[in-house]
Write a structure and sequence with these properties.
Shape: elongated
Largest sheet: 4 strands, mixed
Low-confidence stretches: 1-35, 48-57
Order of helices and strands: EEHEEEHHEEEHHHHEE
Number of strands: 10
Strand order of the largest sheet: 5-6-7-8
Helix content: 25-40%
Strand content: 15-25%
Amino acid sequence: MRAVQFTFAGCTAHKCVPEKSSCSKLIIQAAEVGYLTAKQALDRLWKGISPTLTNKRKEMYAKYDFRKKPSSKEDEDKQPLYPRIVSNGTIDFQRIVKRRSSDLNKISEYLISGYHVQLGDLGYFSAKLKARPVMDAKEIHAQSIYFDNVNFRPSSSFRKKVRGFVEKAKSGFAHSAEIPVEERRRRLEKFLDERPMIRRKEYTQLTGLLKNKALNELNGWVKEGVLDTIGSGSHIIYVRANTGKD
C-alpha cells in the first residue's frame, strides 16, 4: 500500500504547540512517503498520537498514597490504611476567575487532578477518595480506589468568625408519638371502616408518626397483605387489601 507519514500538528485556532498543549483540537497531518504495510502505517500513527494522549491523561491523574486512620481503641500496627490524595498544590479561586473559567466543571477538574481549591478567606476544597481499608498497601490497586466526596476545610480566620452564643430551643426536634403499634393498627382499621382509603398525611395525623415513619409503616402493611396501593409517587393512596384497584 502507499505509505502515509503521520505527524502531530498544532491547533490552528489556538496556535498550540503539540508537545506542550493538552488542546483537544490538535490535528494530524499526513504525507505520502513511500510504501509501508498497513501495520507499519498504524504503528507510525500511534507513535505520533500516544505521547500527547498519555501526557494529557497523566495531567488529569490525582496521585494518592496510604495513611493510617488514628484510633485510640487499636494499636498502631493494627490500624488499617486508607487512600489519601497527595496534593499537587493550591489553586486560588481568583486565578480561576481571571481565566474566565469560574464554572463548576473547571473547579472539579482541579479537584480530580489532585489540587486544593481555595475559596478566598472561607477555606479550601479538596477531593475525597474511598476504598476498602487494608492492612497492606499491596492488597489494593488504583482501579479499586475512586472519588467519593468533596472535603471542605475552613480557614482559621473564618472559624474565628463563626463563634457566638447558643441557647436550647423551646420546641426542639419533632418526634413521633409513642403510641403502641397495636393501637395504630386499630385506628387504621376504624378509619377504613368509615372511609374507603387513606393517605400518608392522614395516617400521620391519625397515629402521630412523622412523615417517613408513617410512610414506612404503611408500606409495611402493604407487604404484610393488610393494605394495597393505588397510584404512585405523591399521589399514592392506601386501601384495604382485596378491595380491588379498578
